[in-house]
Amino acid sequence: MKKTFASILLVCAVTTATAQTLTPGILADIRSRQPNVAADRALANAMAATSINQLARTADNPAARDTHFSNSVPSRGVTDQKSSGRCWLFTGLNVMRAKAIKDFGLGEFYFSQSYLFFYDQLEKSNLFLQAVIDNAAKPMDDRTVEWLFKNPLSDGGTFCGVQDLVTKYGLVPADVMPERFNANNTSRMANLIALKLREYGLELRRMVQGKAKTADVEARKTEMLATVYHILTLCLGAPPQQFTWTRRTADGTPVETKTYTPQEFYKEYIGWDLTEGYVMLMNDPSRPYHRTYTIEYDQHVYGGHRWTYINLPMDEIKQMAVASIKDSTMMYFSCDVGKQYDSETGVLSLDNFDYGALLGTDFPMDKADRIRTFASASSHAMTLMAVDLAADGTPLKWKVENSWGASSGKSGHLIMTDPWFDAYMFRLVVERRFVPAATLELLKQTPTVLPAWDPLFAGEE
Q: 181 and 234 in contact (C-beta within 8 Å)?
């Protein structure tokens, strides 16, 4: 039979597909490579009814028993974010409440997370709607537009959100605007607001594409945000514009009763510029060190601060962290908390689980390759508060105050070995006074702008 050009292409396509397909012959080869030993049969039986972590756990890991720390920042009370992604907010406020407790001799004291979360969700709604307006000329399948509609709203965030929200809206004590069910369980509220935002986003795109007047587009956006505000008020309560509060000593003795606006309370109990007082650091070995980077749309407030950081080697970051802890100053810290975390002991250690011995293979990717392949990223923020130093000053382990309640980990805290810290720590925010002058000079660089879908930030806290 005479072959046509089309039939030749078809034969080539089939031949190529066959080479890439799991044929019976390839499957037979794969099966022949499987070990047939009694130990594997015993493991398979055990794994039929037992979790991988339980079988891979290193029962005699000494890190689970060592709870001594040479340097620690005092803390009173542990917070609980419950079923929400607000770790970034709890962590930022924990850093500030530690300062307030120290400066004013307070007992167990908390700032209201619900108060700032209300404005966070409102500001993020405005950020999404305005970003849709700004990109309305682009097609729906444009990468930026697609990312916006996939991510109209979340309860996650970063320290730059804490900076902008506190600076703009101030602070209130927790008992002035306490937690409600929908603050502790955010998913349904967030899903409904996100659904509304997607609807509104399409409407605004059509208005802009239809050449509507800018004033009309902005007026419609304000109406949309009024609906979001109403939903937030029903779910979280109305944020106070003024309140009366009594300060007490650590033993409960009243000191003074005053009436404040949230801004006045922030200025009295914190009193310094959060947007200028902190420096954000990152350890990302997949990119050059001693460079600054920023992430597009990684902000909470339109026109506010994006996460902008200096990428540094771990040894330089650790020096600043140790200096801060020695000065009794807590820090915002985030990491990939789900890796090698033993929930029974509250310890994060590379020796917690030996998956290789259990499964007969190894997992050799380094930190840079884990970042590039979306295998690891910053997933949870906590408050770095302690370090255990060897005689020569080398860190042995670290401790954080978590926001999963006092019953989790070690009385609400987690311990991480220094090798784990190297492998899975990503972000640290330190006060400017602990940053060397040469490092501060790096902030004068024009930051490299990374897209919002960058691998390191795909699963951010």
A: no
pLDDT at 92 over 80: yes
CA atoms within 13 A on the CB side of 440: 12
Catalytic residue among 87, 160, 235, 335, which? 87
Is 290 noted as a catalytic residue in this protein?
no
The closest of 359, 118, 154 to 241, measured between CA atoms, is: 118
CA angle in degrees (0–180, nearest 5) for 200-161-370: 95
Q: Report which of 282, 315, 272, 309 is spatially closest to residue 293, judged by C-alpha positions.
A: 309
pLDDT reported for residue 250: 92
Residue 273's pLDDT band (cuts 50, 70, 90): confident
Give yes or no: 380 in active site. Answer: yes
Q: 281 is in which domain, residue-wise?
A: 79-457
402 within a domain of the structure (yes/no): yes
Helices 159-169 and 87-104, axial angle in degrees (round to 10): 60
CA 109, distance to chain mean position in Å, is: 24
* 402 in active site: yes
pLDDT of residue 15: 47
Residues in the chain: 461
Q: Which two tokens stand for residue 400?
A: 């954080």
How much is the pTM? 0.91
Look at residue 429 and tell me whether its pLDDT is greater than 90.
yes
Residue 333 lies in a domain: yes
Shortest CA distance to 71 belongs to which of 414, 395, 418, 421?
395
Model pLDDT for residues 320-341, shown as the tens digit of each residue: 999 999 999 999 999 999 999 9
Q: Is 331 helix (H, G, I), strand (E, B) or coil?
A: strand
Instruction: Please count the structural domains in the chain.
Output: 1
Catalytic option among 300, 305, 380, 413:
380
- Kindly report the CATH number assigned to the domain that includes residue 230: 3.90.70.10
Query: Would 31 be classed as within a structural domain?
Result: no
Residue 284, domain member (yes or no): yes
Question: Tokens 């990374």 map to which residue?
Answer: 450
Handedness of CA 252, 255, 259, 260 (dihedral sign): negative
Q: What confidence tens digit (pLDDT) does each residue in 194-220 have? A: 999 999 999 999 999 999 999 999 999
